[in-house]
Design brief:
Layout lengths: L1 E4 L4 E4 L13 H15 L7 E4 L2 E3 L1 H4 E4 L10 H15 L5 H20 L12 H7 L11 H15 L4 E4 L8 H14 L10 E4 H11 L3 E2 L1 H6 L9 E4 L9 E4 L1 E2 L1 H9 L3 E4 L1
Parallel strand pairs: 5-6, 7-9, 8-10, 9-11, 10-12
Antiparallel strand pairs: 1-2, 1-3, 3-4
Helix pairs in contact: 3-5
Length: 275
């Protein structure tokens, strides 16, 4: 992507998986640049131009400016809405449609049973899967020791659930050490943020693996075990997530692991095998 700043006749070229630094010592100039960016982020007009492959992009849709780090929130409304939309589509796909409808029918029946025991003619709004998801309060864990790691994870979540964007941090060096900043830059390059083609995984939690291992007396849990148990089809990729508790020492085989899942498996004395 390219960010053209006419105020200083400057074009910043930022390739995917790369970090660029801009030092602005003139406070008034910095103020003008930030005013222009924030105006465009609100959908208003401005002079700064963001482009990719010679195509002008809307800054409001293709750029995020991080200026507040205390607190820095992962659970921004626009991102959570994207997650809800993705979960809603997943719930209504061919694999989950029957189970989703069964759950809605069960919930409607339960509410009707409760209403019979109450005084008055009680009505209910139509129950939808979207309403159910919103009611349970979907969100990402905010428990991070490192601000830099939290920002990196947020960037990955945006790429996963929203779109490819340019991210600008304002005075991040004021909040993290030089060592953390160097690691942050290296991690951006290492993680790449290059793959805009999202990989679909079937999520399997630690508690599911624990139950499977106990039921079949397994010391190694792999793809074939998930297929035999009916958790996945033969062509699905598996990502192990950290929900639940794992007490058995296991060798767990999957295509991807969350950091919390990896930590829990290793804490129990086990190992992860990434395919």
């Amino acid at each position: 992507m390219k960010l053209a700043i006419p105020l200083v006749d400057l074009v910043i070229v930022c390739e995917c998986g790369k970090c660029c630094s801009l030092i602005v010592e003139n406070q008034n100039l910095l103020y003008q640049i930030l005013c222009d960016l924030t105006s465009q982020l609100r959908g208003e007009e401005g002079k700064i131009i963001l482009s990719h492959n010679n195509r002008v992009l809307q800054i409001s849709k293709s750029l995020e400016l991080f200026s507040q780090f205390v607190p820095f929130e992962l659970n921004k409304k626009i991102l959570i809405n994207k997650v809800i939309n993705r979960m809603q589509k997943l719930a209504m796909d061919e694999e989950h449609y029957y189970q989703t409808n069964e759950l809605i029918i069960l919930l409607e029946s339960y509410l009707l049973d409760l209403s019979v025991e109450l005084t008055g003619d009680i009505e209910f709004s139509k129950i939808t899967w979207e309403n159910i998801i919103k009611a349970v309060g979907i969100g990402f864990t905010e428990n991070y020791d490192s601000l830099a790691e939290k920002i990196l994870d947020y960037m990955e979540l945006v790429r996963e659930y929203d779109s490819e964007k340019m991210f600008i941090t304002l005075n991040l060096r004021s909040y993290i050490s030089d060592d953390e900043m160097n690691k942050f830059v290296n991690d951006v390059v290492a993680r790449g943020f290059k793959n805009i083609n999202r990989v679909e995984y079937k999520a399997i939690n630690l508690d599911t693996i624990q139950k499977l291992a106990e039921a079949k007396s397994l010391v190694k849990v792999g793809i074939n075990d998930f297929i035999e148990a009916g958790f996945i089809s033969s062509n699905q990729l598996v990502k192990v997530l950290g929900n639940g508790t794992l007490t058995n020492k296991l060798e767990v085989e999957a295509h991807a692991f969350s950091k919390t899942a990896t930590a829990a498996i290793e804490a129990a004395g086990g190992t992860v095998v990434k395919l």
